[in-house]
Amino acid sequence: MKTVNSIRIEAVGTPPTDADVQGLADLLVDTVTSGSAVSFLPPLSRGEAEQWWRNALSSRPARAIVLVARSGASIAGTVQVQPAWAPNQPHRGEIVKLMVGSPHRGSGIGARLMDAIERASQEAGYRLLTLDTKRGDGAERLYRKSGWIEAGVIPRYALNPDGTFHDTVIFYKEFG
Questions:
Q1: Can you list the residues of the chain whose pLDDT is less than 70?
Q2: Fewer CB within a 10 Å sphere, N or C end of the chain?
Q3: The domain spanning residue 28 has which CATH number?
Q4: Domain extent for 58
Q5: Distance of alpha carbon 61 from alpha carbon 56, whole angstroms
Q6: Which residue in 122, 171, 125, 166 sits closest to 146, CA to CA?
Q7: Edge-to-edge strands of the sheet including 149-159?
Q8: Distance between CA atoms of 163 and 113, rounded to whole angstroms?
């Protein structure tokens, strides 16, 4: 297993730096190119990825949390919590876009990002988190190992790059 001692996990600032947007765009392109299910299909250009990140970061709700795992000057991974939009759900957030760059996979960065986003979410007042992931993906194993509870499976939820569909697993985690 690769070492993660030199990895720093930090919140992305408001506004984000150009270097952060570019690093997140590179990470998104790498993630999509390697076949991970993060809402995009290949080919995804760096320009498209950069524009998506600029829009996502500039329009994020005040209670959103975006974390990055830094390896030196580069971004090795990221994860977010987005608040529920509904007025009767101020206690709920959704974990989205957990990504670890292909050179860093299997090093424990995903688990560290999830631990950090759970702590940050609790500190921000979230009491219930939800997420979804492609059935059978490595992320599903990570969530199960981290104590997330399966709520169910939705068949044919999203497209794979080859045009077939994959199922998604919905998970949740509550905090006291």
A1: 1-5
A2: C
A3: 3.40.630.30
A4: 7-129
A5: 10
A6: 171
A7: 7-11, 65-71, 74-83, 92-100, 128-134, 165-174, 149-159
A8: 30
